[in-house]
Amino acid sequence: MRRIHCIGVVAAVLAGAVALPSFTTAGAARWGRTGHEIVGEVAATGLPADMPSFFRNAADQLSWLNYEPDRWRDRASTESNEAFQYDHFIDLEPIPDAALAASHRFAYLEMQSKAGVARPEHLGLLPFRILELTNRLTVGFRQWRAESDFRRRAWIEQRIINDAGILGHYIADGANPHHTTIHFNGWDANTANPQNYTRDRTFHRRFESDFVNARIRAADVQPHATAAPRELTDLRAEVIAYIRRTHGLVRRLYDLEKQESFGADTRAAGHREFAIERLAAGATMLRTIWFTAWRMSASD
């Protein structure tokens, strides 16, 4: 689910305005259950043999959990929607590199506030959510390595699988260009649009849910996500780079929409290739981060 951008938000941020208009939650705009479960399933396939067997055997659960943060949505709960909706995206265009390099989300928010952005969370917190959950997963693996009591080890295994599955949700979000841009659901109304890209407010859903649900399966994605995971030596830089690579595909996504609108009945080969490529990128990154958390857990 994404928020609705209000008129003038990006212009206000770039101009250093002291206030941002309020946001409200939009309709269901997400990979949808199909896309999220594909990412989790493909990521869990072919995990390195040196990862624990309990984790390698949890593919079905890791797939199911990938959609979990969207199951938490409660339209009747202001607290739930307002508190957590910003973890699913990051609007990169108005955010300086220095802010993204902040050591944690609260340092980032403070830095943006000092720069004149009254509600910086409205620009999204996705990379910080990924880093937070990766750290939690690393700690879980470290506890599992050290625990000798079989009952406690089993409890830790449950926590590890849950954290790894939920982490997967946000990495999957980061594979969709819509989750990295001010143009998250139709081209931003206050931004120049010389290519006459759609401003349709159903675009996000039509691509991420309607099209993927109808046209893509895990078997389509699996052959494109076979690379063995590597241990990331600079996790923060790699997470930011991953999101930036996704952001670099925003115009390509909008160009495809111009050629043929995304939807359940779309048959253009390029549209299908793009969706498969993005889901494979999410699965590859997720497998790599799981592996990195496991390797990092070997050190104190």
Describe this structure in words.
- By secondary structure, this protein is mostly helical.
- It has one domain: P1 Nuclease, CATH 1.10.575.
- Helices cover 56% and strands 0% of the residues.
- It contains 15 helices and no strands.
- The protein has helices spanning 9-14, 32-44, 53-56, 59-65, 68-71, 78-84, 97-100, 105-114, 126-146, 150-173, 203-215, 218-221, 235-247, 250-259, 269-296.
- The longest helix has 28 residues, at 269-296.
- The chain is globular and about 60 Å long.
- The two termini are 37 Å apart.
List the helices and strands and how they pair.
Layout: H1 9-14, H2 32-44, H3 53-56, H4 59-65, H5 68-71, H6 78-84, H7 97-100, H8 105-114, H9 126-146, H10 150-173, H11 203-215, H12 218-221, H13 235-247, H14 250-259, H15 269-296
Helix pairs in contact: 2-4, 2-10, 2-11, 2-15, 4-10, 9-10, 9-15, 10-15
CATH class categorisation: Mainly Alpha
Strand content range: under 5%
- The CATH architecture assignment turns out to be Orthogonal Bundle
Annotated CATH topology:
P1 Nuclease
Mean pLDDT: 90
What is the terminal separation in angstroms?
A: 37 Å
> Uncertain runs with pLDDT below 50, 5 residues or more?
4-29
Number of helices: 15
Structural class: mainly alpha
The percentage helix is 55-70%
**In this structure, how is the largest beta sheet organized?**
none
Order of helices and strands: HHHHHHHHHHHHHHH
| β-strand number | 0
**Rg, alpha carbons:** 19 Å
Shape: globular
Number of domains: 1
